[in-house]
Amino acid sequence: MSANERTLPVHAAMDQFDRLNGQLLVGGIPLTRLAERAGQTPFYAYDRSLLEKRVATLRNALPASIKLHYAMKANPMPALVGAMARWVDGIDVASAGELKIALDAGANPQEISFAGPGKRESELRQAVAARVLVNIESIREIDLLAKISEELGCPGRVAVRVNPDFELKGSGMKMGGGPKQFGIDAEVVPDLLRTLASTGLSFEGFHLFAGSQNLNAESICDAQRQAYALAKRLAADAPVPVRFLNLGGGFGIPYFPGEKRLDLAPIAKNLADLAIQARSDFPHADLVIELGRYLVGEAGIYVARIVDRKVSRGETYFVVDGGLNHHLSASGNFGQIIRKNYPVAIGNRLDDSKETRAMVVGPLCTPLDLLADRMALADAQPGDLVVIFQSGAYGATASPHQFLGHPPPLEILV
Ligand SMILES: *Cc1c(COP(=O)(O)O)cnc(C)c1O
């Protein structure tokens, strides 16, 4: 980042991107030129070098024996998955559609795993034919996979996704503990493992995922230790030695004022301890963590152009050409309990000293279409470019593009 003085609010999220002459740089390209290159607004831009840097930083911090998987539901853009597939150890998919993208991207099927409730028979057939690992989420999937394996003449590779008896404390989204549609309740897993041997399926291990978007390293360590201990108990009933132990993820990124980046040091130490224990408890197993937003979220921005500037009873509105139809999370309608502003800036006026308090709203006829609520922003005009940071995950594909019939956003990898 340049040493330019500026009066605009600084958010941790913006320090990833460089700037030149008041322009945000994405992959070295000034924002207004990037918009010309894209040929339209709104668009999402993902910075390849930031993606690569994030994977490298994580690898440097974590023990070398820990395998890193990318959970591609965070961002399934094919070009991005293609890049990630070269840098991480495996890809986690959650539908046949994602499986196709991962395979097309050149990911090694041996290192692809397929989780998610309610897998259709056709999806399970595709997974067996592709020889990827299926994280089974119900008894039904075991029966179906056994039948499919026999029909196709190749044994389905399975791991048991366990609904743990603990949760990831302080998570944005809890996905384990208590009744859940995900995985198989820990207490019924032993019986299931004893029957698995007779099904002809190839058992490989366990998948435990307790939650998402957590910024507290201690909570993450705690969940990893509990996942490990649970897997160790369950392994006693496994038909063959465990080869795959997915301890989950849940690494969060800072979205809102006051949030800090996750401290990797305690997590690295904890994983190193577990890796040492695993040498005797699971001598044949790969220890895996699966991350979505942590790998891609901070490398992406959403860019929309100001179409209109109006004042209503003293409040200034920047009306832009895309809103919650493209970026549901930034509008606060993707699982958030209280709406808070994502980091936002006028990406072609980063050096402007004159600022104004403004609302940034999209073009939809609903008050929910709010991208920034009374934020201090550069004193922008129609034609200027609004940038929403921290938009590389759960953006384009997690938004209702059809709502109100505007064109979908473009996505570019820069
Ligand atoms: C959604 C999901 C992830 C990714 O979560 P992030 O918060 O993006 O890291 C990982 N694993 C499973 C099983 C998931 O459902």
Overview of this protein structure:
The chain has 414 residues and is α/β, with parallel strands linked by helices. The protein contains ten helices and 22 strands. Strand 16 and strand 17 form a beta hairpin. It is elongated and about 70 Å long. The structure holds pyridoxal-5'-phosphate (PLP).
Summarize the structure.
The protein is α/β, with parallel strands linked by helices and 414 residues long.
Q: Kindly name the structural category.
A: alpha/beta
**CATH architecture type of the largest domain:** Alpha-Beta Barrel
Shape assignment: elongated
Count the DSSP helices. 10
The CATH topology name of the largest domain reads: TIM Barrel
What is the secondary structure topology, with strand pairs?
Layout: E1 19-20, E2 23-26, E3 29-30, H1 31-38, E4 43-46, H2 48-61, E5 66-71, H3 78-87, E6 90-93, H4 96-104, E7 112-114, H5 121-130, E8 133-136, H6 139-152, E9 157-163, E10 173-174, E11 184-185, H7 189-196, E12 202-208, E13 211-212, H8 217-235, E14 244-246, H9 264-281, E15 286-291, H10 293-296, E16 300-312, E17 315-320, E18 344-346, E19 355-361, E20 370-378, E21 385-388, E22 410-413
Parallel strand pairs: 4-22, 5-6, 5-15, 6-7, 7-8, 8-9, 9-11, 9-12, 12-14, 14-15, 17-19
Antiparallel strand pairs: 1-2, 2-3, 4-16, 10-13, 16-17, 16-21, 18-21, 19-20
The structure holds pyridoxal-5'-phosphate (PLP).
